[in-house]
Amino acid sequence: MCNKIIVFDVNETLLDTGALNPIFKRVFGDERILRQWFSELIIYSQSLTLSGSYMPFGELAVAVLQMVAEIRGTILSEQDINEFRQRLATLPAHPDALPALEMLRAAGFRLVTLTNSSTQAGQKILEQSGLAHFFEKQFSVEEVKRFKPATENYTSVAQRLGVNADLLRLVAAHTWDILGATACGWKGALVARPGNAVLRVGKQPDIVEKDLIAVAHRIIIIDRPE
Q1: DSSP strand E in 72-123: where?
Q2: Does residue 153 have a pLDDT over 70?
Q3: Inter-residue long-range contacts of 20-26, CB under 8 Å, 24+ positions, other chains counted
Q4: How many CA atoms lie within 13 A of 139 on its CB side?
Q5: Which of 17, 55, 100, 191 could serve as 173's disulfide partner, Cβ 3.0–4.6 Å?
Q6: What's the whole-model pTM score?
């Protein structure tokens, strides 16, 4: 087995947040508000971390949804919030996730996850998506109570796996996540899904592709020993 470990972000990288589109279309009349909500969610998760606070990601997701609704003059019913919670907890896997994971596992890589979601929520959603069996461990920011890209998350994963940073590569659909990992000595692979792109400042990921299958191909070429 290869001694390199691939660490996957979960939301948007493996799981499709586009499954939330119907509720944003129904409640706001525009499914594009999903992007505003997700951007605000990341901003305020990092704001909590910078101010020394923490709350479960799922609770913050609902609070940000309520904030966006208030900004836009939209009234959310209890039914709306319950539907949102249910959809968020049952996000499906992207179609490219399973074949990409199969490729990497067949190539001998060790696979783990690191998510902003709570430990319980992260494990449950990977189980229902059919991807959990690919991963030997599932890590959550809940363990350090600081949201990504706080460096404590990446150093904690390396310590718990008992490996040096240069054996770790983060696969994520978010440049801000890659920035945190590379700051800790990891390699990065960006999945430039729609709505995500490279930030042309700072240390750059050495792999940038539009989907997970292409990312997996590049990882196998670059990281697998001869």
Answers
A1: 110-115
A2: yes
A3: 20/84, 20/87, 20/88, 20/91, 22/87, 23/80, 23/83, 23/84, 23/87
A4: 26
A5: 191
A6: 0.95
